[in-house]
Design a protein that fits this description.
globular, metal-binding, alpha/beta, four-stranded mixed beta sheet, Ubiquitin-like domain-containing CTD phosphatase 1, Rossmann fold, coiled coil, 11 helices, EC 3.1.3.16, Ubiquitin-like (UB roll), HAD-SF_hydro_IIID
């Protein structure tokens, strides 16, 4: 706990950057901390929402002293909030521009990489050593859906007053529909602390209509070397399959906005369109509704290795009675951020 003389340095993550706040004594308040953050980021104190600081089980008020918080050395917290100029720009339309592609052209390397012995050995080590905190037990007979977070479910680069404003439209409807046939795993290339914070702020962790089986962080990833691009970090599904015998390539699909993340399991991966510039794109983004329809359509397929997820948009199944509800959602505007997270 911080003393009255001084408080441990605090690193604030905001808009993809980190800001180090130091020199605040323990008798300073959370309000003083916000003023220090404002000096570095330009975000006004009343627009800041600090995630990662707790006082008596809740976010502390501005008058709480830093000495009353359990601040450990080199503590990192996340801030939600926007600068005034950015808020003004959010209401202005932006010109059309081609999608930014954040991926490698790695198709020719996939087959040679996924079966390399040294990488399979790394996966075996992860299977042996990785600690998985189960949130909900797998259900018998359910297939597996593995989901990325940043740019897949959440625009982590844009700034906003709340996480709900940066949530991909129809996220809760999508997860509710998927949960009917799939157990759901969240796998993000970040620290577990930030994954838990994001899932809580988005209302995913506590939603009564679906449950998350477990979450994986960057610690479950492995590094591989490609001749063209050098060393990269990837998400091998073998880490999951090695721990849960009921899941395999036959009944698993992974959604990620970056194809290289599933280079070890290219046939099981589906590259989702990245969700960026949330304030401008949320009114027209229908990706999750269409993917929910696809997941429902392939749920009866016995072996997913017979599918080509790269052509998922052309997949034409027999219509089922529940798809009409998804079609109706596709025609509706997204719910407000407040109603989606509330």
């Amino acid at each position: 706990m911080a003393s009255n003389a001084e408080v441990a340095d605090i690193t604030v993550k905001w808009s993809g950057q980190e800001y180090k706040i130091s020199g605040l004594s323990g008798d300073k308040t959370v309000g003083d901390l916000k003023e220090a953050i404002q000096k570095q980021t330009g975000v006004l104190t009343d627009r800041q929402k600090l995630l990662g600081l707790k006082f008596k089980g809740k976010i502390p008020d501005d008058d709480v002293k830093l000495s009353e918080l359990k601040i450990k050395p080199n503590t990192k917290i996340m801030m939600m909030g926007s600068k005034e100029d950015d808020i003004k720009q959010m209401s202005e339309p932006i010109p059309d521009h081609p999608d930014v592609i954040n991926d490698f052209d790695i198709e020719e390397e996939e087959i040679s990489i996924e079966n390399r012995e040294e990488y399979l050995a790394k996966i075996e080590k992860r299977v042996r050593d990785l600690k998985i905190d189960m949130l909900n037990e797998p259900r018998m007979g359910k297939k597996l859906l593995v989901l990325d977070v940043d740019y897949t479910l959440f625009d982590h680069r844009s700034v906003a007053e709340s996480a709900g404003e940066l949530m991909r439209p129809f996220l809760h409807e999508f997860l509710t529909t998927a949960y009917e046939n799939y157990d759901i795993v969240i796998w993000s290339a970040t620290d577990m602390k930030w994954i838990e914070v994001k899932m809580k702020e988005l209302g995913v962790s506590s939603n009564p209509n679906y449950k998350i089986c477990f979450m994986l962080s960057s610690s479950a990833m492995i590094s591989i070397h490609t001749p063209k691009y050098g060393v990269i970090e990837v998400k091998p599904l073998g880490v999951i399959w090695g721990r849960f015998e009921q899941w395999s390539a036959k009944n698993t699909v992974m959604f990620d906005d970056i194809r290289r993340n599933f280079i070890m399991n290219p046939q099981s991966g589906l590259k989702i369109r990245p969700f960026r510039e949330a304030h401008f794109s949320r009114d027209k983004d229908r990706e999750l509704i269409r993917l929910a329809r696809y997941l429902r359509a392939i749920a009866s397929v016995d072996d997913f290795t017979t599918l080509n997820h790269r052509k998922w948009e052309k997949f034409r199944p027999k219509r089922k009675h529940r798809e009409d509800a998804l079609d109706a959602l596709d025609d509706e505007p997204p719910s407000s951020p407040r109603s989606e997270t509330g």
